[in-house]
Amino acid sequence: MRLTMGAALLSVRRSHQVNRERGAEHDRPNAIVSETPASRGPDVLVVGGGSAGLCAAIAARRSGASVRLVEWAPAALRGGNTRHARNFRLMHDRPTRYVPDSYSEDAFFKDLLRVTGGATDERLARVLIHCSATIAPWLESHGVRLQDPASGAMPYSKRTAFFLGGGKAMINALYMTAAKLGVRIGYDSEVVALAFGDGPDCEADILHDGRIDRIAAKTMVLCSGGHQANIGWLRESFGAAADGFMIRGTPYVTGSILRLLLDAGVKPAGDPSRAHMVAVDARGPKFDGGIVTRITAIPHGIVVDRDGRRFHDEGEDARKTHFARWGARIAECPGQIAWLILDAEGFERALPTALPPVRADTITVLATSLGLDPATLETTIKDFNAATDTSNDVPLIERCTQGLTPPKSRAAVALAVPPFAAYPLRPGITFTHFGVTVDDHLRLMKNDGRPARNMFAAGMIMAANVLGDGYLAGLGVTLSTVYGRLAGEEAARVALSDEPESGS
Ligand SMILES: Cc1cc2nc3c(=O)[nH]c(=O)nc-3n(C[C@H](O)[C@H](O)[C@H](O)COP(=O)(O)OP(=O)(O)OC[C@H]3O[C@@H](n4cnc5c(N)ncnc54)[C@H](O)[C@@H]3O)c2cc1C
Fold first, then answer.
1. Fold match, 5-273+432-496 / 296-352+362-417
2. Looking at ligand 1, which residue's alpha carbon is closest to its atom 15?
3. How far is the CA of 255 from the centre of ligand 1 (A)?
4. pTM to 2 decimals?
5. Which residue has the higher pLDDT, 351 or 245?
6. Closest CA to 212 of 9, 32, 12
7. Backbone CA torsion sign across 487, 491, 497, 498
8. Which residue among 37, 48, 53, 65 is the one 20 to 30 A from 491 at the CA level?
């Protein structure tokens, strides 16, 4: 496919218009479009400065290519969703300084099959798992520091390694390394149009400081994430409910690049109506709340909708990750809002939260402060308490309700001890299972079944090839670092080779 520069300019305007129509959070001022031909850019242009983009940029530079990285966010907000991450998943056959025990290729692959229900490209998944075995030392050699599990600071995990200082520290280290290696980095720089085809170069229009400049590069690596921060686009799949979603990560991942690629005939992967959502505190920020707004105490109380009624078994899943199942449930509630109600003893058992709960000495006062009907909430709690097992012979975690619909199948203890506490809950979206299709070399695949010659993708923009559904803790960063590194190496190899590659 060849978008002429005329067509590329057209796609700039179309992208602006489409984003406005879809209600993207960022409306751009009228930009001055450069009328000069594309300036000679780097061998490899990397779009997006999260972990995929940084790993691609570093790997391409280490392979000998000149590299430019453009990041839409300002420097203070650089790093996309990766800023919020804590750990990543890796295969290993023996304990190391940063991960105990072992985690085999087969165990990793089985876990992936289980959560995706088979919605995974096995060849790409095997590449991911194999290369995860070397990603930790590679990251460390580029300045990233990992936690020693023996310090006891993080939860025990034989499947994932934790960043010392979290994703923010990891991102800062990679930016520093990239800059030292000579990667040219531009912030506040949004790619608003792309042109690629049979010719030797691909081109990007970059909006910076109210001006659009056109850059030609030999190859490009697209690492701009999915489209979870674009409420308008989410509305297409989730209807008006999308207005009630919180976006757990950066507002800059609007899918603008994804849209340009799909409009240009790149083959989609995954399903835009599938998303990873968790229960978050409704009082947190609309964007970028990160991990601290998660509400992790659901098994210790009951959850009611805005009518003051329970709607699901709060004890069904008492694992640490139970809140990840509640995002989708709350998304189906009227107004996409629900409340977790605890008594003083349940509150004692819960982990601390970023924001304090709403508290009251009686259910009537609590309901009134929450805007719920006091009589209905009182009836809900009375019925719940009457159905709980009051014998002390059964351990708390094993107690379940009798004759109640929906039941509470674990930790069903009466809510009887004041003061009572409540958290308002909303669905917080982490990412969508939707992006572009890539081949084994991480080249973009087109609808006509051919790979693009010089366009590569890594990270969440192509994650749906492997993660068509569900989630495994730590997989997001593994996907972005492993594929980012590989895509950077491939992009450099093509850029520095004199031989034309197959594809168009
Ligand atoms: C709250 C939260 C916690 C998480 N915790 C974990 C965890 O512990 N472990 C884990 O494995 N995963 C975690 N994840 C998921 C993980 O963060 C992502 O899967 C991963 O970081 C994605 O990396 P990426 O580089 O593909 O995308 P991102 O890190 O999102 O980077 C995309 C970048 O592209 C830029 N961009 C977008 N459009 C343009 C454009 N048009 N022009 C220029 N730049 C553009 C954005 O500004 C952004 O910086 C978490 C996610 C969230 C939201």
1. no
2. 476
3. 12
4. 0.92
5. 245
6. 32
7. positive
8. 37
